[in-house]
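User: Sequence in, structure out. Go.
Assistant: Echoing your sequence, followed by the structure tokens.
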Amino acid sequence: MKKIIASASLAALGAASVQAAYAPGLSPQEKAKAWTISGTLRGFYDDNPTASIGPDKQESWGLELSPSLAVNLALDQTLIGFNYTYDMRYYEARPRHEADHSHRVSFKINHAITEQYKVEVSDTLNYAQEAELQGIVSNPTGTLRTEQSYLHNNGRLAFTAELTPILGVVAEYQNDYWDYDQEGNGSLSALLDRVEHLGSITARWQAMPNTVGLLTYSYGVIDHTSNDSLYGPLRFVDSATRDATSHFVTVGAEQTFTSQLSGKARVGGQFTHYPNALPGQDDSVVSPYADASASWTYNPGSYLQLGVRHQRNQTDVGIASSTPGQSPVQDQESTGVYGVVNHRIAPNFTGSLLGQVQHSSFRGGGLDGKIDILGAVGVNFAYQVNAFITAEAGYNYDRLDSDLAGRSFTRNRVYFGLRASY
């Protein structure tokens, strides 16, 4: 569930205490020392590890092991951070290739040039074999259901300037690189290997002490990199036909209502052009864009977070049929709604409920108007045994209902184990 609703689990609430060192975003434990080691050991039951349909489902018990190392060096004006996480999931029912492995490496540098000017640089490399169910909430660059291995690298550069006490500007560049192991005609490489660029500039206006107005322009490029055909060997369809450029124009605000309640929202339009569209395909489309969220800390250690997002995104569906002249699916238009409730039941006992629903409509490929509805729910209970060890148990339910034959599925997972951190 952590991957499905990752972006719904927003940064920890509350203002950080004043520190001599520059340490934005660090937890009290991370501020106390330069490094942290942690690990998770879980047993689990998964009734559909490969996100398959009907009789192809294969249930399995398993074991998950996930150690990680985090290093944060906080200097007078600079924070340097590094994190590595390894995850292994062993499935006892598999006749071969019993274990899935993933590696996640991240690096960041936050530097305050002066009190008015700041620079942030970050990069995250993720290599995974695990079957994924992702939507625009956790993976803004696409909706994906696959058991295939892939590599994803995300890099970001941001510059923040406070021009006057009430006016500021943020300039950002983000790069996403996707590379799938499965190659060949109609493969995931043909459908999803790509490089994405997104540049944006945001003007920030401190309209009132608790209100910031936002005006943002962004320009995005999606460049597919595979030489394989989107369809089979009898008909070559270049993956570049799904290339796209987009202009985003949004207005919004960040509002602090009380010390416990805050919210932010951006709404506007996405103007998308497909430079390599095939004859007969529309080469442009205008669609709404929205991204809004709110957080409420109703008790110490207890909070509620809600959000909604609407945008165009890539998809792992290529062409509906081999009919001559059939154009490929260009992308989807999706709306995702998510929520998180974390409640401290007792001083050492916490429960959480996570949920996401996404409605996606296909464009092109003979699938115009066809719908995917993705849903995910997770429940987790955690008991803090001591300062270093936490026992936890939980349940996740994933569901995809699709108008496309052979695509819908359900998945149930139960897990129990220990988390340790030092």
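User: And one key feature?
Assistant: Helices lie at 28-32, 188-192.
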